[in-house]
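Run Kunitz trypsin inhibitor 6-like through structure prediction, thanks.
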Amino acid sequence: MKTSRLITISFLLMAITTSCGVLGEGTDVVYDADAQPVMANVPYYISFMTYEYKMWICRVNMGSNDPKSCPQQPVMITNSPIDLPTQVMFLLPASAPNNTVHESTELNIKFINPGRCGESGFWRIVQNSTTLDGEVVLNGYKSSKDSKFFIHKANEYYKFTAGDNDNVDPITISLSNEPVGRQKLLAKRFAGEMEVYFYRNMPKE
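Sure, done. The structure for Kunitz trypsin inhibitor 6-like is below.
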């Protein structure tokens, strides 16, 4: 009788754990730097790790110091002018049950303001046919496969991946090897990770 009760209790605990999202991928909520759930269609700044590093995602021309120069793409800039970091929004599929962003959920990343260069603002991965590595650019589309990303927990921060979410060796978004100050966002397998945090408001010094 005791054995039967123990088995019943075990099954109940497994059912409760699974329904609460502790087991399984894609159920954990993504949180911003203020410990609030990250929401779709809400503007966020993206920093490398915490804001103390003073590295922010900006929408600029990689090869120019002129903020009006074209074409533009997402670039991680260190010690950027205060008005240069550019907010993004996360867009979820129409099938999403609500606007809360969860880990491993397919999403789009889009700069919130129209660009001066005519790009769509959607992040997109362009693959190099020779090296099979990619680079994050703009001109993506909401429905395009190369504009789909995922957010995963990476230690105490988060990281972006792309491609098939169930891939054993996913495409990871990392930083290029340019001298610190201005770095491209690369899309590579077996590479490092760009660990990031999300801020609704730019922290005050």
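The chain has one domain: 42-199.
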